[in-house]
Amino acid sequence: MTKVAVAKGDGIGPEIMDAVLKVFNAAEVPLQYEFVDMGKWVFDKGYSNGMTPDAQQAIETLGILFKGPMETPKGKGVKSVNVTARKTWNTYANKRVFQTLHGVDTVFSKAGIPVDITVVRENIEDTYGGIEHMITHDVALSRRFITRPGSLQVIKYAFEMAKKKGARRITCGHKANIMKITDGLFLEVFYEVAKEYPELKADDVIVDDLCMKLVTRPDTFDVVVLTNLQGDIVSDLCAGLVGGLGFAPSANIGDHICIFEAVHGTAPDIAGKNIANPTALLLSGLGMLRHLGLMQSAAIIENALLYTLENGQHTGDFGDKSRPSLNTTQFAEAIIANFGKKPEQGAKPLLPDMPSTQTHFKLDKNPMLESKEESNEKIIGVDFFIESNEQPITIANKCLRHAGVKFKLVNISNRGTQVWPTGSVYTNLVNQYNVRFESIDDFPLTQQDVLGLYISLSGNFKICSSELLQMWGDKRAYSLAQGQ
Ligand code: NAI
């Protein structure tokens, strides 16, 4: 029998996990569970990543983690165990399914507009690297990583999933009009992958417009794929379309390890009262059963859940307030009592069990994700991020003295807006500038040339950080300042 790791989590986690496992056991789901130690209480015992070494080993051996929500201890230096788990095990795609559930009233269900949207959110990169620095006392900087191989993994998964699901449309949400290099790369990879799936209508929508369209015409969307932070926000928006966080399941998909969990958190305001809604965790568990090929068990439970909702049985957070609500345990028992019944709308077919689609196997070294693209690379300049509270013209005059024979000072910008050689006195300044040097006549530079300039310039300014300016063939591998 397949064994999966289970972490009950914090807050309402143990209550909703017990309710879900009660339903699984009553349905005789052919799974064994290994309970592992993860969560806030594990941090408190001194394990800085929120899990014991035994838990990590069990999860890496079994390949599947079914988890309740976990609290991130407040305070500096402690990272979320949820994010750590997703990143450590490279669960690159976060799949969240948002479907109209009969019995869960929303403005759209009342208007007869069905919602069935699957959001695939990139799960590793973006600002979630959490690589942040105070570079002056006034200026905080976050590094946003979007990589070609990372984008490729999640976008390929989204297309493959959309094809299997029989989706009509797959949409890339992005902000490539502003973040031309990072979001531009994600969008470029999206259309590269789209060529391999001519049967799917692939299009893109700028993320702000996407939010507006999702709340006005959610029925026109099918599968939506986004970078991490935008995907985080858009998926909570979609949860709102179908009745809130109590109905939002999620699957974190990787090549070796997958994590199934609800979108919501530990709900500290209602923890310990046995009143939480276990539906989102149950739906996440059903995603896990289907991932493992346990189609029959998943359909029996899902039909019973849909029947229960359609029947008006509900926990306190939703449903007809004139009918008494059930507590968490009673809600699980109501689902169990409805095994064998089918909802009037949206009954799931009792498909035979399929072999597991798991691809879990043991690794002995870290996989290197690398694209094979090669191009004619050359260094043609450098950006220095310097601390200064002087006026642009004063900084320019000092910088010009350091340019030497290889470099020319091209421009100076502040918060991304050009302030020298042209600019406006109405641009507010902060005490951190980007001074951009390029090679004279585009002559290729070496790192030693750049270091020489660094040393020279550091005599005048505190250099907070620097970035090489590179050309790949005809393509500029850096952005221009606003106004440049
Ligand atoms: P939350 O999702 O825990 O709660 C937001 C609101 O939704 C609360 O009013 C809560 O009572 C309600 N709610 C959530 N789940 C519910 C359920 N199943 N049934 C009924 N009502 C429910 O978000 P919050 O308060 O921002 O976060 C609390 C803690 O959870 C934090 O420590 C946070 O870091 C953690 N968290 C963990 C996640 C995970 O484990 N994947 C995800 C999100 C937050």
Explain how this protein is built:
With 484 residues, the chain is of the alpha/beta class. It folds into three domains: 1-91 and 263-372, Isopropylmalate Dehydrogenase (3-Layer(aba) Sandwich), CATH 3.40.718.10; 93-253, 3-Layer(aba) Sandwich (Isopropylmalate Dehydrogenase); 377-476, Alpha-Beta Plaits, CATH 3.30.70. Helices cover 33% and strands 22% of the residues. It has 14 helices and 18 strands. It has helices at 13-26, 40-44, 53-62, 81-88, 107-110, 148-165, 182-194, 207-216, 228-241, 279-291, 295-310, 328-337, 392-402, 447-458; strands at 2-7, 31-35, 64-67, 93-99, 116-122, 132-134, 140-142, 169-174, 201-206, 223-226, 249-253, 258-262, 377-387, 407-414, 417-420, 432-439, 462-472, 475-476. The chain has a ten-stranded mixed sheet, with helices on both faces. Strand 1 (2-7), helix 1 (13-26) and strand 2 form a beta-alpha-beta unit. It starts with a strand and ends in an 8-residue tail after the last strand. 1,4-dihydronicotinamide adenine dinucleotide binds next to loops.
What distinguishing features does this structure have?
single chain, 484 residues, alpha/beta, Isopropylmalate Dehydrogenase, Alpha-Beta Plaits, 3 domains, six-stranded antiparallel sheet, 33% helix, binds 1,4-dihydronicotinamide adenine dinucleotide
